[in-house]
Every structure is written in C-alpha cells, then in structure tokens.
Design goal:
401 residues; 11 helices; Jelly Rolls; seven-stranded antiparallel sheet; alpha+beta; single chain
Length: 401
C-alpha cells in the first residue's frame, strides 16, 4: 500500500507530481503471479524472477492498474500499479481515490465514481489458459464485484507459444435448450480437459484480437496478449485438467456464494453462461477485432482502433516512423503502453521492452491539451493508448462485416 498516511497527504503529493511532470505519471511495472499454469517467460524479467514459490510464477503484468489481483496467496498490493517517484511509494489506486478530479477531470470523476473503470494487462502463459467464464453483472454483484467483459490484442514480433489458438463459446447445438446439461458432467467429475470438445478454436493472429463479453466461455491460447477489460478479477473455471495437472475445483466456485454452492452445486456456475452468445454460429464474425482507422491523418504515423465494439473500454495502436512525430489530443484520462521502439511522449522518454520506461498515465488535463509523440530511434515506435468507459463515442462495431 502507499506509504503516505492520509488522503489529504496523498492528494497534495499527486498535485505536486502532476505539476512537476506536465500531467503525465510514469508507472512502475506490476507483475502478477498465478499458481495454475507455468509462465511463458516473455515479460522481460530475468529467468530467476519468474518462479515465486507457493504463489506460482509470474504470468501476467498489469498496466496502470487500480485493481488488486484476487489470488489465493500473495502480497497485499499484487496487481496494483505504483507511480515512479523518488519519495514515498504511491499506489495509483490511492492517487485516483484521493485526487480523482486531478487525475480524471472533475466532470468525468463525478460521473465515474468507481475510478478508472478498466484494467489492462499482458498475459504470458506457456500453456493455453483453461476454459472458463466471467460471471455477468447480475451474478458478479452477488459477490460484490464488477463483471468482466474483456478484449484481446495479439502482440507482434514475439514467439506465439505452443498453442496460439483460443477456444471460444460452444458448438451451436450445445446452446440449445435441452442440450446445455452436456457440460455438467465435466464439472461434476472434474478430471479431464474433454469439455473442450464442445467448443471451437480460432487462430490468434498477431495484430488482431477478439471481444469477449461476460458470460462467454473461452480458453485463450499462448500468444502474448495485450488485454483490456472491465475493472474486475472474477471467474469460474470450467476445465479441470490443464498443463498436465488437475486445477483446484475451488476455482469453479471462486465467485459463487457459499449458500449457492451448497444449494445448487456444479449447476450454479452454469447460470453464468450466456447461451445465445456462446452458441452463435457467427460468433467469429461478431466478435473478431482487426485494426480499424481512427480517422486521424498523420504523415509519419498510423493510428488504428484495436479495442472497440463496447462503451466499457477502448484502445488505439499508434505506429510512428523513425524521425517522425505526431500531436495528439484525447477526450480524457488514459494510459500508455509502449511495445517497441524508443522516443518521447509528452516530453517523457519512453522505450519498448524496458519495464519502467514503457508505461505512463496521462491525466485529464494533459490528455485534453495537445501533446507530442516523437520517434527518436531507428525502428518504428509502437504504442497503445488505453481508455476507460465512455471516453470515446462513435467507436466501430466489433466484427468483420
């Protein structure tokens, strides 16, 4: 947690930091361990830092995060981003809570009292993630949580791993009334990965992605993935065997109330499944994300939407040629993740592949006034701008048509 003692002290510190930095905060990397799969080891850490004992291994990095990772064991601040500062440690969560108007702008903070409202992350696994579902808001609310709509962008120029394909939804016949109980025996027996026979796999193509609403069953593949999602860490695991071992069945009930588990058992998590969406024969056509033009015209850069199709979050990819520069203006607070290349962003040095130099938070005041991005290196500068709910209107719809 932050080492400052009161919200007023935190607010004063945030005001000073924003004033000194032109409204842009540099963020420390927030690495997250998981204990159900081995890591893909593509997050730029020294080899010895991936394995963290009973916590498992570092498999994710959370970006501009105000969300704590909901792990079985781990430090109190796991998943929470911290502001780079020479003085007291300051969590971004505490900065937003103490000075929402300074970070988010007064009007947006008033209409979005929960904070930034989105979570971005890199996930990096050696095996495909197990088939699981995120409960829709109706059921997430029962455990005091947010739903978890999410979207993926598969990053280029890196080893895609052994299984770069994702299982998404179910075969249409499974979703028909009267057929849905076909999944129940796998949850009861909890001894295999054969539940995947009832789903369809799609290739993870670098530079593309998918929009996955809450209620959709999915098993993401091994491609290194930039994910943008609602501010939540809820799930119900539906696949027992993965990566050569049986996952704890407790993860099936991770976000199920004790009384619902006692009364309904394995049937209750099946309520999380949006059968109509899962069984849509045009699921790919409706949920695939390919880069779409933003309408901005730059001589030395290209900007595209890569996260869209929902008002809950959005994101752009900006590619700047060597020696080029562009001037940006955005409608509100956002975060930046630099994937490759080197340059400056609103006067701050940035460099892809170097945690500590690749992540920024741009406050409302800085975002809404012109700020320049320049490529000072010999390779293309590629970065992603990530936005929370309701900041961009007129987003393109998800899908290929």
């Amino acid at each position: 947690m932050s080492d400052l003692r009161s919200p007023l002290e935190v607010r004063d510190r945030v005001e000073d930091l924003l004033g000194d930095s032109g409204g842009v905060l540099r963020l420390e990397p927030a690495f997250v361990a998981r204990d159900f799969l081995p890591p893909g080891r593509r997050l730029g850490l020294p080899e010895e830092r991936y394995d963290v004992g009973e916590r498992g291994a570092v498999c994710e990095r959370w970006l501009a995060s105000t969300t704590r990772a909901d792990n079985r064991v781990g430090p109190e601040d796991e998943g929470l981003s911290a502001v780079v500062t020479d003085e007291e440690r300051l969590l971004l969560r505490d900065a937003v809570a103490a000075a929402p108007d300074l970070v988010m702008g007064s009007a947006y903070a008033a209409s979005h009292p929960a904070g930034l409202g989105r979570l971005a992350k890199l996930f990096d696994y050696a095996f495909r993630l197990p088939y699981h579902v995120h409960p829709p808001q109706e059921y997430a609310s029962l455990v005091g949580a947010n739903a978890k709509d999410e979207a993926y962008h598969f990053l280029p120029g890196v080893d895609p791993g052994g299984h770069p394909e994702s299982f998404l939804g179910v075969h249409p016949w499974v979703a028909r009334p009267g057929s849905r109980d076909v999944l129940l025996p796998y949850l009861v027996d909890w001894d295999s990965d054969l539940i995947l026979r009832h789903s369809r796999a799609e290739l993870q193509v670098p530079g593309e992605g998918f929009l996955i609403p809450s209620g959709v069953l999915h098993a993401p593949g091994t491609a290194l993935t930039l994910e943008l999602q609602e501010d939540s860490d809820v799930l119900a695991m539906f696949q027992a065997l993965n990566g050569g071992r049986i996952i704890s069945k407790d993860l099936l009930y991770k976000d199920v109330r004790r009384e619902d588990r006692d009364e309904h058992g394995e049937r209750f998590p099946l309520r999380f499944v949006d059968w109509e969406t899962n069984g849509d024969p045009l699921f790919y056509e409706s949920h695939h994300l390919s880069p779409q033009p933003t309408g901005a015209r730059f001589e030395t850069a290209a900007e595209t939407w890569v996260f869209y199709g929902t008002p809950k979050f959005s994101g752009k990819r900006l590619v700047v040629d060597p020696g080029g520069s562009v001037e940006l203006t955005e409608p509100g607070v956002y975060s930046v993740f630099v994937w490759s290349g080197s340059g400056t962003f609103a006067g701050h040095e940035v460099r892809g592949g170097e945690p500590g130099l690749d992540e920024l938070l741009v406050s409302h005041d800085a975002a809404t006034r012109p700020h320049r991005v320049a490529n000072t290196g010999h390779d293309q500068l590629m970065l992603f701008s990530l936005f929370g709910p309701d900041l961009h209107a007129d987003l393109p719809p998800a899908g290929v048509g």
